[in-house]
Amino acid sequence: MLEQRIEQQFIDSADLKYQAAQVLSKPISSAIQAILACVTSGGKVLVCGNGGSAADAQHFAAEFVGRFERERPELGAISLTTDSSILTAIGNDYDFDQIFSKQVRALGQGGDVLLAISTSGNSGNILKAIEAAHQREMTVVALSGKGGGKMGASLRETDVHICVPHDRTARIQEVHLLVLHCLCDGVDTQLLGDQEGNQV
């Protein structure tokens, strides 16, 4: 019984990825172009999310600053989820909804990209981060699911929305991780040419 349930988890995840590949390939390609334009102009990517999405934000920043699969010059990315002093100071002195937006206003500049991750699309602090990014004339790449929630409505025409067509948080997060790897791979391919990555 337990083994069957485990097998079904793998099957459900694979089925969603197969379905999402057709739906998301175009917005992922647009996101790669936006991020590429940013980093080749000396800009940086600011990344934020809550819970598992916070871990995804750190994961992306690590692969961007360090490397993904191939050696290349470092690329600018900052996860806004990692500084506990900043997060607790803003959360305590202001409001939890402002923990990312204040960092975006402090660190973001025109031409930078905000990579905003929310499985529901309704996280208050993510929505305020998007608003702050727009104030800074940044492009927003939004990763969501569950129809996109309020996040979808808050985006501009120049932003990119990558909305996983599913309602279950775990499945959405699994696809988000694949999307982040696609972003890293796509940027590397555009910068370095198309060749097999070196597995490490």
Q: Report low-confidence residues grouped into runs of 5 or more.
A: none
* Helical stretch tally: 7
Mean pLDDT across all residues, rounded? 96
Q: What are the secondary-structure elements, in order, as H or E?
A: HEHEHHEHEHEH
By secondary-structure content and strand pairing, the structural class works out as alpha/beta
Question: What is the global morphology?
Answer: globular
Largest pleated sheet: 5 strands, parallel
Give me the Rg, rounded.
17 Å
Question: Can you summarize this structure?
Answer:
The chain has 200 residues and is an alpha/beta fold.
Describe the fold and architecture.
- By secondary structure, the chain is α/β, with parallel strands linked by helices.
- It is 56% helix and 12% strand.
- The protein is built from seven helices and five strands.
- The protein has helices at residues 2-40, 52-65, 84-93, 101-107, 124-135, 149-154, 169-192, and strands at 45-48, 77-79, 113-117, 139-145, 160-164.
- It has a five-stranded parallel β-sheet with strand order 2-1-3-4-5, with helices on both faces.
- Helix 2 (52-65) links the parallel strand 1 (45-48) and strand 2.
- Helix 1 (2-40) runs parallel beside helix 7 (169-192), helix 2 (52-65) runs parallel beside helix 7 and helix 4 packs parallel to helix 5 (124-135).
- The chain is globular.
- It starts with a helix and ends in an 8-residue tail after the last helix.
